[in-house]
Amino acid sequence: MRRAASKSSGLLLPSIISAFVALAIIGVWFLGGFGDPFRGIEKISAESYMESAKSFQGGTYQFEGVVDGDLGFEVNKGRLVSFRVASSKGPICLPALIPASMNRINPQKGQFYKIKVVGRDYGLLVVEKIEKL
């Protein structure tokens, strides 16, 4: 004798797949996959950086700034750029190295950017991610 097929078993697999997809989308959103790629990164204090750049070694920071000038270029190292950022004491210029691996970035004076940097030796800020605003 044949057993009657359960009607609920036909809905079980699509329900599990839908739940898994929904959880995956929520997980990606919470990890920053759909939102601000700079979310969760500490904003740099320009005043503190100017007082003691070495204390920023090893940290990851973000800031928004306007290109103030080009400070130099070296083929294997990259381009050193000065970014003017707002602070409580007025505008401050922060230097940041755009590595040679990011040579597609060509910042022009007056352009506004959002930047993720890592503090390297002696407090040199090296760009990891840069977006024109």
Instruction: Indicate the CATH architecture of the largest domain.
Output: Beta Barrel
- Relevant CATH superfamily of the largest domain: Nucleic acid-binding proteins
Order of helices and strands: HEHEEEEE
Q: Give the biggest beta sheet.
A: 5 strands, mixed, barrel
Silhouette? elongated
Count of the separate structural domains: 2
CATH class of the largest domain, anyone?
Mainly Beta
Number of strands: 6
Q: Report the structural category.
A: alpha/beta
Number of helices: 2
Approximately how much beta-strand content do the residues carry?
35-45%
Percent range of helical residues = 10-25%
What is the averaged pLDDT score? 85
What tags apply to this protein structure?
133 residues; alpha/beta; 5-stranded mixed β-barrel; 2 helices; 21% helix
What does this structure look like?
The chain is an alpha/beta fold and 133 residues long. It folds into two domains: 1-35; 42-132, OB fold (Dihydrolipoamide Acetyltransferase, E2P) (Beta Barrel), CATH 2.40.50.140. Helices cover 21% and strands 37% of the residues. The chain has helices spanning 9-30, 46-51, and strands at 42-43, 60-74, 78-85, 92-99, 112-119, 125-132. The chain has a five-stranded mixed β-barrel. A hairpin with a 3-residue loop joins strand 2 (60-74) and strand 3.
